[in-house]
Amino acid sequence: MTATTTTSTTATSAEKTGARTSEAADVITGARDRIDALDDRIIGLIQERMAVSAVIQEARITSGGRRVNLARELEVLGHYRDALGKPGTGLAMTLLELCRGRV
Question: Per the record, which residues fall in region Disordered (predicted)?
């Protein structure tokens, strides 16, 4: 009974990927590995952007300016929208939110 339980709880790569063939499962598994690596790089870049943003905010505040430059944020929103379409605006808003107030 233990062997049956072990077999039934161990999913095949086709079951894990939703693929109907082992060839498709291999393609999906490889592509998912690539996506995971890309996500790690994206997260690292976002963390780097947050650090650079903190430097900018510190310099702006130290010089007597405001923490946030709304004109610049509008530029960023436009850039993402132009590059990625409407969803890019939401992505940029999230990115700007992550980068605010880290001083």
Answer: 1-22
What are the helix and strand counts (H, E) for the chain? 5, 0
Q: Give me Rg for the CA atoms of the chain.
A: 22
- Please answer whether residues 53 and 102 qualify as being in contact, where contact means their C-beta atoms are separated by less than 8 angstroms: yes
Query: If 0-12 CB within 10 Å is exposed, 13-18 middle and 19+ buried, where does residue 68 land?
Result: middle
pLDDT digits (tens, 9 = 90+) for 21-75: 999 999 999 999 999 999 999 999 999 999 999 999 999 999 999 989 999 999 9
DSSP type of residue 65 = -
